[in-house]
Every structure is written in structure tokens, then in C-alpha cells.
Automatic annotation (TrEMBL):
Residues annotated as binding heme: C289
InterPro entries hit by this protein: Cyt_P450, Cyt_P450_CS, Cyt_P450_E_grp-I, Cyt_P450_sf, Plant_Cytochrome_P450_Monoox
Keywords: Heme, Iron, Metal-binding, Monooxygenase, Oxidoreductase
Highest taxon above the source species: Eukaryota
Full protein name: Cytochrome P450
Pfam family, one: p450
One MF term in the entry's GO annotations: oxidoreductase activity, acting on paired donors, with incorporation or reduction of molecular oxygen
Family: Belongs to the cytochrome P450 family.
Essential cofactor(s): heme
Signal peptide (from-to): none
Source lineage: Eukaryota, Viridiplantae, Streptophyta, Embryophyta, Tracheophyta
Length: 352
């Protein structure tokens, strides 16, 4: 969905997986997300960097080159279509808008191609955008288009469905809510989401137990300060353990238990948009995840549509493995295999 917004193509899922470029893109993005969480010895001991133990830096350079090549090819295709007049204003994607803003410009020695590819891939172009008068929100939203959005929604959905399958009563409750507010004669629409309070509570509880990134992004102190008796020097970096906060027994009753009901009762006033420090799956403050609104909207809609359209059950009688992997994103160590069957009639889908 994110890549479709950026370049107007769907690369994940469906028939497109047979396309060579789609396979290249899927492989490169997956490798990119894996390498983001890899520990490189050279980061801790710079003078050992040239040894490249484990070949991480070589893999990073190869992946960066592949992503640059893929985005470069898309950029050329977009320019050709624009030159032929094949796209109207309503059909424009993110890359089309970037081309219309930047094509032919060179700023501080940086050409348009470099600026467009860097922004799409999530490299640091904040200095350029600030010089052009764009806000922090816009900068954050654009510089994390692929690097920040590709993996998070998939991770949240994977953990949420796993938790629902491990808790059959929760599954029955959310299906009842879907049937009451939507029925079985039509599909879920975006306008239905606000009435699905139990489904939203499920997503909150999933984000509490399995935040997409268990550690926050680094924050740096811009001046010397004293905090609760501790002297902190300018330049000190802080990385917050979000998972620890989310499972603090001083805040949460039965902190390791999956209880969506808590967000309808004792913690009903806590949101996940950075206003309450008890729950910060997307961080907080000016530098919190800029895609939170779109990401939540997408997760709620996909989860509601999936659970409303299909009966789901585990493909194995064994307990679902909830082991996590080490990395930047909190991904599941083993794939989730499930069985599905339609809940709605074919005519319902055809009418929608």
C-alpha cells in the first residue's frame, strides 16, 4: 500500500510477485529492514570498520545500490509518462509530485534526481526541506516514506492476529462487534472504524505488548541540564526502552497478559499518539513517528476487513510461537500459518 502511494505500483502480494522488478523490490526492502537492526563492530569500534566482520557493511552497500537502482528506474518511468501526458492530476502519486516540485533544480550542488531518490528512500534531506520552508511534520513524513512505513504495519498486524488466535474469546467478541455494527450483507468501510471500539482496544493492547520498535529512536540533549538530580551533558543521547514502560507493573495490572478490555475500562482514556507516557509505541514529542495517523487507519481497516470477511484458525494444534527476533523492528521469529474460510457471501464482495 505504501509503495503504491509512492510509485503507483503494488509490489507486495498478488500477481505482481511474478514480476522481476517486484521480486527485486521485495528482497531489497526485506534486506534493508534486516540490516537496520544488525550490530556492526565498526559502529562501536571505528578503527575495526575496515575489517568488516560478518560482511555487514558490504551487504549494506549492495542493498543501498539495489534500492537506488530500483527507485532510479521508477523515476525514469515517471518522467517518460509525464512527458507523454499519460497521467492526470488526480492519478498522481508521491513521486509525480516530487518531480513537479524539483525537476530541473539544483540546490547546494544536489541535483533533482538525488533529492527525489533520497527523500523516497528515507535518507536525511531535512536540511534541504527546512531551507525550503517545510515544517517538521512534512520533513518527517517524507523522509520515512519507505524506510519507516514498509515494515511497521505488517509487524503490528502479525502480532495482533497471533494474539487474537491465542485468545478465542477475544476473537468471538470482535466478530460479534463487527456483525452488530456492519452485518454480513456488506463489507467494512472506513467510516465504520470509529464504532469498532473493541477492535481498537485490541490494537492498543497488541501495541502495548509488542510495539513495532521496542526501543525508541535516539534523542540528543541540546544543552546541559539536570533531571531528577542527575547532571546530563549536552550531546548525551537517550534511547527509551518502550517495552519496559509498556509492561511496568506499577502502571499496568497483569502487565504480560493480553487484556484488550483494559482500554475500555481502567485505561480507556489512554491514547497511543504520544500524549500519555504509559503507552508510546510510536514515540512522543515533535520527533514521534509522523505516519501514526495513516498507519493506525491502515491497521484498523485491514484488521477489521480481514476478521469480518474470514473465519480464521491456527493450522496447527500446537501453541502459537510468540518468539521475537532481535532487530530494529519487533518481528515474529516464525511465520504465522493460519487457515481461513469466507464468512461473507460472494455477492457481498461483488456488490462492493
Amino acid at each position: 500500500m505504501v509503495l503504491r502511494m509512492v510509485v503507483g505500483k503494488r509490489y507486495f502480494g498478488g500477481e505482481n510477485l511474478d514480476d522481476e522488478k517486484a521480486q527485486r523490490c521485495v528482497k531489497a526492502v526485506e534486506e534493508f529492514m534486516r540490516l537496520l537492526g544488525v550490530f556492526a563492530v565498526g559502529d562501536a569500534i571505528p578503527w575495526l570498520r575496515w575489517f568488516d566482520f560478518g560482511g555487514q557493511e558490504k551487504a549494506m552497500k549492495e542493498t543501498a545500490k539495489e534500492l537506488d537502482s530500483i527507485i532510479g528506474e521508477e523515476l525514469e518511468e515517471h518522467r517518460k509518462r509525464k512527458g507523454l501526458g499519460e497521467k492526470d492530476d488526480e492519478a498522481q502519486d508521491f513521486m509525480d509530485v516530487m518531480i513537479s516540485l524539483l525537476d530541473g533544480r539544483t540546490i547546494d550542488g544536489i541535483d533533482a534526481d538525488t533529492m527525489i531518490k533520497s527523500t523516497v528512500l528515507g535518507r536525511d534531506m531535512s536540511v534541504f526541506w527546512e531551507s525550503e520552508g517545510y515544517s517538521d511534520v512534512v520533513i518527517g513524513g517524507e523522509t520515512t516514506v519507505i524506510s519507516g512505513a514498509t515494515d511497521s504495519s505488517n509487524t503490528v498486524l502479525m502480532w495482533t492476529i497471533s494474539l487474537i488466535l491465542k485468545n478465542p474469546l477475544v476473537l468471538e467478541k470482535v466478530k460479534d462487534e463487527l456483525d452488530i455494527h456492519i452485518g454480513k450483507e456488506k463489507c467494512v468501510s472506513e467510516s465504520n472504524i470509529s464504532s469498532l471500539t473493541y477492535l481498537q482496544a485490541i490494537v492498543k493492547e497488541s501495541l502495548r505488548l509488542y510495539p513495532p520498535a521496542p526501543l525508541s529512536g535516539p534523542r540528543e540533549f541540546t544543552e546541559n541540564c539536570t533531571l531528577r538530580g542527575y547532571d546530563i551533558k549536552k550531546g548525551t543521547r537517550l534511547i527509551t526502552n518502550l517495552w519496559k514502560i509498556h509492561t511496568d507493573s506499577n502502571i499496568w495490572e497483569d502487565p504480560l497478559e493480553f487484556k484488550p478490555e483494559r482500554f475500555l475500562t481502567t485505561h480507556k482514556d489512554i491514547d497511543i499518539k504520544g500524549h500519555h507516557f504509559e503507552l508510546l509505541p510510536f514515540g512522543g514529542g515533535r520527533r514521534m513517528c509522523p505516519g501514526i495517523s495513516f498507519g493506525l487507519q491502515m491497521v484498523h481497516f485491514i484488521l477489521a476487513s480481514f476478521l469480518h470477511s474470514f473465519e480464521i484458525l491456527s493450522s496447527s494444534p500446537d501453541p502459537i510461537d510468540m518468539t521475537e527476533t532481535f532487530g530494529l523492528t519487533n518481528t515474529k521469529a516464525t511465520p504465522l500459518d493460519i487457515l481461513i474460510k469466507p464468512r461473507l457471501s460472494l455477492s457481498c464482495h461483488e456488490s462492493n
